[in-house]
Amino acid sequence: MAKNNAKTPAAAAASAGDKSRLKLILLIAVALLLAVSLSVGATWFFLSRGDRQAESATDEVAEAAAPGKQPAIYEDLAPAFVVNFSQNGRQRYMQVSLSLLARDQAQLDALKVHMPLLRNKLVMLFSSQSFDTLVTPVGKEMLRQQATATVQELAKKEIGELVVEQVLFTNFVLQ
């Protein structure tokens, strides 16, 4: 007997339904993959454009800052200066911590070579002060300006340029 190759109508409908269901699942997967790809691409585009804008903004800031003032560099002079002086036969002490404000690190490093001489000049300046003058805010400010002038004078003499803009008191104790 010959075998019947024809499928029953129910089997034919089931295989057609499987094929259409498979096509639907495949179509949904492709659409989902396309949506994810578009989302990732758009995110990358917008974020990289923001990076380029931020990078160009920082370049503009750096170019604008180059001709003007450079950022401040602070160099602490450690250890703190401790000097003694006599006031009406009474021994007095002063402790001062200093920071130097400069703009060029290379020049500041060149000044560090002369640090023993700088510290000596500052100790001599501090020990020559009067206690009555130093207890007033005006006296402290005058001492700060004298210290700045001393440091600038030394830098001009040894390096040939004004390296330090200001000398700042970070700690000031009188006893």
Automatic annotation (TrEMBL):
The lineage of its organism: Bacteria, Pseudomonadati, Pseudomonadota, Gammaproteobacteria, Pseudomonadales. Controls the rotational direction of flagella during chemotaxis. This is Flagellar protein FliL. The keyword Nucleotide-binding does not apply. PANTHER family: FLAGELLAR PROTEIN FLIL. InterPro entries: FliL. It is found in: Cell inner membrane; Cell membrane. Keywords: Cell inner membrane, Cell membrane, Cell projection, Chemotaxis, Cilium, Flagellar rotation, Flagellum, Membrane, Transmembrane, Transmembrane helix. It comes from Metapseudomonas boanensis. NCBIfam families: PRK05696.1 (NF004285). It is a single-pass membrane protein. Belongs to the FliL family. The chain crosses the membrane at residues 24-47. It holds the Pfam family FliL.
